Amino acid sequence: MQLKNWISEHKALRKRFNSHYLKGLSWRVVRTIMLAGLVFMILYPLFVQFISSIKSASDLGDPTVIFFPKNPTIVNYRVLFDAIEYPTAFLYTAVFNLAMSALQIASCVMVSYGLARFKFKGRGLVFALSLFTLIVPPQTIMFPMFLRFKYFNPLYIFKLTGSFSAATTLNLTGTWIPFLLLSLTAIGFKNGLFIFMQRQYFRNQPVAIEEAAYVDGCGPFRTFVSIMLPGALPIILTTFLLSFVWGWNDMFYTQALAPELPLLASKMFGVAFEAFSTGSPVMDAYLENAKLFLLIFPLIILYIFTQRHFTESIERSGLVG
Amino acid sequence: MFNKKGKRSISLESKKAMSGYVFVAPFVIGFIFIFFSSFIFFIAMAFSEQGMSNEGMVLEFCGLKNYEELFLSNMEYVKSVFASLGSLLIRLPSVLLFSFMLAVVLNQQFKGRGLVRAVFFLPVVVASGIAASTGNSGGLLDNAQMMLQGMMGDDTGAQNITESIISLFGEGSYGSVLIEGVAAVVAGIYDIAQASGVQILIFLAALQTIPSSLYEASYMDGATGWENFWKITLPMISPMLLVNAVYTVIDALVGADNAVVTMVYNMGAKQTNYTMSAAMGLLYFVVVVVVIGLLMWGLSRLVYYEDN
Asked: pTM surpassing 0.95?
């Protein structure tokens, strides 16, 4: 009886610790070690930077303070928080970027669907041009673009110099109109990448669903909105997130086209900020660190709370059976 | 051609082509009226000299004079262009491999996955945040540079990793070439991880869009994981592999931290020599377009699309 028990127990154990299980276990161990190492590598420099942003002046002179400050202080954060009117700037930036990113993604997704699914003359050219906008770095095109928006007249495509007069042109700089135009027409910051990603996604979808919709009398726009868009949600959210982060941290466009807008990055890194310098270069560097964290902290929170919604598998309303 | 009511009937083909034009219209309009007109200005600047008049800056056409000056007096420029291209040879394959592996791992189920994903997304957020702080002129730039040095500086980062590995095995004891090679790889991983944030996200999105029914069907037919990878995963993500390859090259060559881009930017923003800046930028742009064109031509034949 005992022997029988023992044998069945042994069998159960062998079943539990078979080669399949061991393989899975060893992979989990390797994976954990690898991820832990990489996470440490990414977080450590940021952590050092964060620690330095809460160091006080007395820690600076203390030779026993190597890593953790003895008198941690949030004075850097408080100074910045009040100086830039953080809540107001935060709200303005959030609304502004939400609107611009939504417009960018809406126009990009339309263009990319057109590029992926319709055959027309010049399709290859349009696609190449959208990559072209991605390849031109904003640092090089910003000065001419600034002039175009300062003396805005859409018909002045080839007009280079001379008689730009206030009578025939509009000065759009300093307003949010340039951003609106760039977003609406899918030529904003790295929009070429979004178009490319979405086009690749659409091209890799089976055409059968759309053909069925066409046969049922659905027009191209309705097919696009009610059949293709729901399935494309993961890719749309991914591009939206990138657009939002890059818009949030953007300085090239905002500084060149509208430095007056009360956006977080502009207020934080704007020129007028030297007034808060303490005179000590090291303390100023600590203040700089605090700025970076005040800027990117909302984005990290946003990512942690939203990532499950767009990277978790979304059931596709695709072909079944 | 004409139906009963006398209206011209259009074929389905040209109807679809018309819809295509409507879909891409926003981009075409924006490209012509904003981007292209700016780019024309940019090209004109590359072949001009800047002068001042009472109306502000004026451009005077001067042919290839900017380029003569560039090649005769600015050796840094040519050197930086070649250095950028050279570093691409290592960066492209390593970033692609790293980001793909990580995306596969981050796509698996395990505890704390959300947080780990957030950590790998951090470099994207931080890099653009730092770009924001370095993106403007004046004394603040020095501060930002100091901050960057603080980040990669003495007590952290790549240099230190290399040294500690070498000292671990003893300097010059045995196979020091091998050990230095390993150390260089480890130090390189830091840079690669920093450069892979967007690529990981793109691969993750691509992996998410593979229908699970494909894997279920192949499992029923008795396929192994290895076969699944080559026959399902790789073809299905190959369109995004192309995106990632192109984006990696673009990020490396025209990203804000590229040496040539910085040089072009400083020539305009710091030295206010806008025409020289445009000349440098235009030539570099042509080089980048050739590289991207070759890459896309080489890779696009390997990409599998569902639609053909």
From this structure: no
